[in-house]
Write a structure and sequence with these properties.
The longest helix is centred in the N-terminal third of the chain and has 43 residues, at 32-74. This protein has one domain. The radius of gyration is 17 Å and the shape is globular. 77% of the residues lie in helices and 0% in strands. α3 (80-119) packs across α4 (123-138). The chain is an all-alpha fold.
Length: 187
């Protein structure tokens, strides 16, 4: 039985997430060959499998991911690889599915951050830094300007491999979608 467009796109994102998580966990970087290589493949595959509407939705999802993640990169709260990974994933799955992934990855990232800081005995420090971030943003200032430890590029920053969090969120959602027979991708 031939693969449906739905399963082809899900399989491609699964591979993309696994490779992104592995490289992020190993080197704390998500390479351009992966993200920038996958982005046109997602757009083209969505166009082939979904026609003009599939291509349009793929492009909208990619722009949505960049609209949300690029400011986080500019604020040095997220790496460029994370932003490109989410844009590449979005090009395969469209805006609705990507919004689900973004919400789950955000919630899961928060939970992992709390557990991580608790395990390292730095939970109170994280709360203080969270307040610094909110204070800086309320004055329309970049948080890293007031506190260099809030710069993801700083060796002193406490950061998580977001690519791994994205992959974990993807697998949780994939399980929920397939277990409950959700039909999210519609071309």
């Amino acid at each position: 039985m031939p693969e449906t467009p739905h399963s082809i796109l899900l399989a491609a994102v699964t591979i993309l997430c696994v490779l992104g998580a592995i490289t992020d966990l190993r080197s704390r970087k998500i390479p351009n060959w992966l993200t920038l290589g996958a982005l046109p493949v997602g757009l083209i595959a969505s166009g082939i499998l979904g026609g003009w509407m599939g291509l349009f939705l793929s492009f909208v999802a990619m722009l949505l991911a960049l609209l949300i993640y690029f400011p986080l990169y500019l604020l040095r709260a997220m790496g460029a690889g994370d932003a490109k990974l989410m844009a590449a994933i979005a090009s395969f799955i469209g805006p609705l599915m990507w919004i689900h992934l973004f919400i789950f990855a955000s919630i899961l990232g928060g939970v992992v951050a709390v557990l991580f800081t608790l395990a390292k005995g730095q939970f109170k420090i994280m709360l203080g830094k969270s307040m610094d971030i909110l204070r800086s943003l309320s004055y329309f200032q970049a948080p890293y300007a007031a506190n260099p430890e809030l710069d993801i590029r700083s060796a002193k920053s406490l950061s998580l491999p977001h690519g791994a969090v994205i992959a974990l969120a993807w697998f949780v959602l994939l399980f929920l979608w397939t277990s409950f027979d959700f039909r999210i991708i519609r071309f």
